[in-house]
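Example for tutorial group B:
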């Protein structure tokens, strides 16, 4: 009897142990599943808040069933054209899924969110691209019109109107617009001359959580002359020499001088030292060029790199005036930089601005003292050494009789 009881108790113990193991294994399985579940599923909040208003459900149903009369009645009664169903489909998504061009056309004339995606991440354009080329074209045209309108608003300083367009359509402020640019980048590139207003709009976008591509913002702000935004960008990206080239595209005067001085004084600048010297040397405004070159020197630029810059320049036959200015040459000579053997320096100093400036004899003498040669032929200036001497004498005579 006792042995039978012990066996029964043993069986009971084994059953209890088995149940405990099952529970433990089940818990372990739950832990494993939760750890290895694909990210971003159940733990994520829903992609949208489904509409519950009767009119909103009515417009969704009409778009889904392609009932144009019912759709227009819902619109006239005040239904939300960006309503969402439980799967986050909008009326435009249903119109695209059902290839209802008539309903889609009406929606394009309203403040519709054409970038809205459903729970599967698909937009109206995605569905249209699978089903109907004509509807795809119309969606693309509607997006293009919106892009153009936003660009015009930003360039013309209608910043509040631009923000209102995003809000009315329920669009993300980070929506890629034309060429993939966002509103933040368009602000940096804005040709609006009111830098204070542009900066305020830029800051408003950041306050709304706009994502900042600081490299693109730096590049855009340089070309648009928005130095305040450039300074903001330089807090996040290096002061690269390509930004100085961007300033040159705008103009080669005081603005480029200001940009180059700002960039070179920024910690973490990048680019070959000789390129910095070259950009500064091509500034056409004499006092600005001299001040910028001095700024480079004051901030640690190696003057030996300026020699390398002149040697690189000497190897090129310029056709667009991208060469050291007279002020830059004077600065270089005064700091011990010599004229490279193959440089066309004398050709430049004698020919350039024949009818505007008198010969700078002091600079010509400095150039000769620093190795400038008169026997360097130049296809750029169409000079041979005898012609160079002839023009020099002619100009000297002309200057004497002015």
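The residue assignment follows.
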């Amino acid at each position: 009897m006792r042995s039978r009881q012990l066996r029964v108790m043993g069986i009971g113990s084994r059953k209890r142990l088995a149940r405990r193991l099952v529970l433990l294994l089940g818990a372990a399985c739950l832990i494993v599943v939760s750890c290895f579940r694909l990210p971003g599923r159940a733990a994520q909040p829903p992609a949208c808040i489904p509409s519950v208003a009767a009119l909103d459900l009515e417009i969704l149903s009409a778009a889904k069933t392609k009932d144009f009369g019912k759709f227009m009645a819902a619109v006239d009664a005040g239904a939300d054209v960006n309503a969402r169903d439980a799967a986050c489909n909008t009326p435009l998504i249903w119109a695209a899924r059902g290839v209802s061009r008539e309903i889609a056309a009406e929606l394009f004339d309203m403040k519709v969110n054409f970038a809205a995606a459903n729970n599967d991440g698909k937009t109206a354009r995605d569905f249209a691209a699978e089903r109907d080329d004509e509807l795809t074209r119309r969606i693309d045209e509607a997006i293009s019109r919106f892009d153009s309108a936003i660009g015009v608003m930003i360039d013309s300083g209608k910043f509040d109107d631009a923000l209102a367009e995003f809000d009315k359509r329920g669009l993300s402020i980070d929506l890629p617009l034309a060429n993939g640019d966002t509103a933040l980048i368009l602000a940096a590139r804005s040709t609006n001359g009111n830098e204070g207003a542009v900066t305020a709009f830029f800051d408003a976008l950041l306050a709304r959580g706009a994502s900042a591509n600081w490299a693109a913002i730096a590049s855009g702000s340089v070309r648009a002359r928005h130095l305040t935004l450039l300074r903001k960008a330089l807090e996040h990206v290096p002061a690269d020499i390509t930004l100085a080239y961007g300033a040159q595209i705008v103009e080669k005067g005081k603005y480029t001088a200001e940009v180059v001085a700002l960039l070179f004084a920024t910690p973490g600048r990048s680019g070959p030292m000789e390129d910095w010297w070259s950009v500064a040397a091509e500034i056409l405004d004499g006092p600005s060029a001299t001040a910028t070159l001095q700024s480079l020197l004051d901030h640690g630029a190696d003057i030996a790199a300026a020699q390398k810059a002149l040697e690189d320049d000497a190897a090129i036959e310029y056709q667009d005036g991208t060469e050291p200015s007279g002020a830059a040459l004077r600065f270089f000579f005064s700091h011990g930089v010599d004229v490279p053997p193959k440089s066309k320096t004398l050709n430049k100093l004698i020919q350039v601005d024949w009818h505007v400036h008198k010969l700078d004899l002091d600079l010509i003498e400095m150039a000769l003292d620093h190795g400038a040669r008169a026997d360097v032929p130049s296809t750029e200036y169409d000079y041979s050494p005898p012609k160079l001497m002839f023009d020099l004498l002619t100009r000297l005579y002309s200057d004497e009789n002015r």
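The domain at 54-131 is CATH 1.25.40.20 (Serine Threonine Protein Phosphatase 5, Tetratricopeptide repeat). Compare this with the pattern of hydrophobic and polar residues in the output above.
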